[in-house]
Amino acid sequence: AVILGSWVILMMLTDMWRKTRNHKSNKKRFAALFKFSASYYGMTLAHIGFALTLLGASLNTIYSDQRDLRLEYQQKVTVGGHQFELTEVAKVNGPNYAAEVGEVKVYKNGELEVILEPEKRRYFSGGNVMTEAAIDAGFTRDLYVALGDELDARAWSVRVHYKPFVRWIWLGAIFMALGGTLAILDKRYRRVRERSAVNQPVATA
């Protein structure tokens, strides 16, 4: 699937390069890109979008990691190449709930990358308990941390998700939608529809 997705993207870019090969200078070749029809750009975007979705789904399935951990304070656990460290859990009062807010430091190659603050809320009305996961979204990966129950004075249950390339799935869908829209807006298709309407025989009584 990864090879197929990469091949589709490469073929689309190669086709655009081939269509401008008669322009010798880079400046003229760049200007020629704006002369392509909307339907051509729509087709290219849709194919690249399909490839991105395929790559995102494949890589996410292969490399995603999920752990349910017993995490003590100042203990580091590695998930998906990142080190997660629970530094503290503070009690915070909201407008209609009492919350326990964790502070989880995430390290990459020994350097602090981000601080996540997952919450566990207990609402005053009804006593419902809700978990608010902390999310750090990126182009190549998403990190999710959810705070569970307090196990003892020094440890909490924590759920950690490492989701690589998950944004590529939605980015591919956006590209496909934009490609379809561009193809619909192509003037040539509108002219064909207009000619068909004019040439359509009129029904007689």
Write the layout of secondary structure elements.
Layout: H1 2-19, H2 26-32, H3 38-63, E1 65-72, E2 76-79, E3 82-93, E4 97-108, E5 111-116, E6 119-123, E7 129-132, E8 134-137, E9 141-152, E10 155-164, H4 166-184, H5 187-199
Description:
With 205 residues, the chain is of the alpha+beta class. The chain is 40% helix and 38% strand. The chain contains 5 helices and 10 strands. The strands form 2 sheets. Strands 2, 3, 4, 5, 6 and 7 form a 6-stranded antiparallel sheet that branches. Strand 9 and strand 10 (155-164) form a beta hairpin. Helix 1 runs antiparallel to helix 3 and helix 3 (38-63) packs antiparallel against helix 4. It is elongated, with a radius of gyration of 26 Å. The model has no long low-confidence stretch (mean pLDDT 87).
Structural category: alpha+beta
Whole-number mean pLDDT: 87
User: What are the low-pLDDT stretches, counting only 5+ consecutive residues below 50?
Assistant: none
Separation of the first and last Cα atoms: 58 Å
**Main sheet overview:** 6 strands, antiparallel
